[in-house]
Specification:
217 residues, mainly alpha, Arp2/3 complex 21 kDa subunit ARPC3
């Protein structure tokens, strides 16, 4: 068994409830028949898990690593990105990289919130900005990737402060101060990933449409 706080127990219920809701909204019959979708979901989960293994930090829990969740959202779409993130988090927790008590918090603040903000930025871009190749790469991938990791770190830092696990100065000095250093790196990782994908494998990318971004109107 593991110790769990009230906030953590609520996060567990909300996160698992959201996953159940998503599971009811996807077609597993189509997923079983679609080998490409299977490979993309599995490949994205393995890629994200591999990135998450390389984490650094001086305070337990307040460690940092690349997320790559914006690229996964653009690649798979909202629902399958959330499910792929769930698979990754479950395997990482099972392997001992995160505690089970933090499973719901990590799911909500470390996966769901970054993926939602990435998708909202993409959705805003698609409907409000010119549908151009460079807009897609720089705004939907680079900018969204930077915003996503900043949001995740701010939310997680706020959670640790709310739970009184660490005082505010420790959270700021050992965790939040790293946000400026990670913005460009995370944005570049997601931007380069999507640039390569839409050049060499555009049919893999769920959110990229040739008729909107490449062809003349």
């Amino acid at each position: 068994m593991f110790d769990i706080t009230f906030i953590q127990s609520i996060a567990w219920l909300v996160y698992l409830g959201s996953i159940v809701f998503i599971l009811r909204k996807v077609s597993f019959a189509e997923f079983v028949e679609d080998k490409k979708k299977q490979h993309l979901v599995l490949g994205a989960s393995i890629s994200v898990f591999g990135l998450w293994l390389f984490r650094v930090g001086v305070t337990p829990g307040l460690d940092v690593h690349f997320l790559w969740l914006t690229a996964m959202t653009l690649l798979l779409g909202l629902r399958w990105a959330l499910l792929s993130g769930f698979i990754t988090l479950f395997v990482a927790t099972l392997a001992g990289y995160d505690g089970w008590g933090m499973f719901g918090v990590n799911g909500l603040l470390g996966i769901t919130a970054p993926i939602l903000i990435s998708y909202l930025i993409y959705n805003f871009s698609f409907h409000k900005l010119p549908r151009h190749f460079f807009v897609y790469v720089f705004f939907c991938a680079f900018f969204a990737g930077a915003a996503m990791i900043a949001l995740k770190m701010l939310l997680l830092g706020g959670y640790y402060y709310l739970e009184s696990f660490y005082p505010a100065d420790i959270i700021v000095d050992t965790y939040l101060m790293l946000i400026p250093l990670l913005l460009f790196s995370e944005g570049m990782l997601n931007g380069m990933t999507m640039t390569l994908l839409i050049i060499y494998k555009p049919t893999w990318v769920y959110t990229f449409y040739d008729k909107y971004y490449l062809k003349d109107k």
